[in-house]
Design goal:
The protein has 129 residues and is mostly helical. The protein has six helices and two strands, in the order αββααααα.
Length: 129
């Protein structure tokens, strides 16, 4: 009986701990910039995962190809948003600036501002010198 209680307790603890162990570690703050093959036309953007987590932004909102397992890749990796230009959905610029896309920075920030929540929406708000 005593072993059964210990086994059940251990199973409960393990079940509760697994999601935390499997969670993807995210960097707190980082600089966002284009792929190495492109030249930045503005200053790089300081980005805070911590602030976005506090705002309850899910990882898959921005990392829309992530399946919830394994490591999350940068938008600038080959095959994601690694193309130059501004109109194509695979363009690096579009990943951050598409005004009508809810998973682009600018699209999300404009929606947040429209709903009365503070969010940077001008170029200088993100590309500060």
């Amino acid at each position: 009986m005593h072993r059964c209680i210990i086994a059940i307790t251990a199973l409960c603890i393990l079940t509760l701990a697994l999601p935390a162990l499997a969670a993807t570690a995210t960097p707190k703050d980082m600089l966002l910039g284009p792929p190495a093959s492109m030249k930045a036309s503005k200053d790089l953007v300081r980005f805070s995962h911590e602030r976005h987590e506090a705002a309850k932004v899910e990882c898959v909102t921005c990392h829309h190809t992530w399946d919830g397992t394994g490591s999350i890749q940068s938008c600038a990796v080959s095959g994601c948003h690694d193309q130059p230009g501004k109109k194509d959905a695979t363009a690096f610029y579009s990943a951050f600036h598409a005004k009508s896309a809810t998973n682009s920075c600018l699209g999300c920030h404009k929606a947040e501002a429209k709903n009365g929540r503070p969010a940077p929406v001008s170029c200088k708000d993100c590309h500060a010198k």
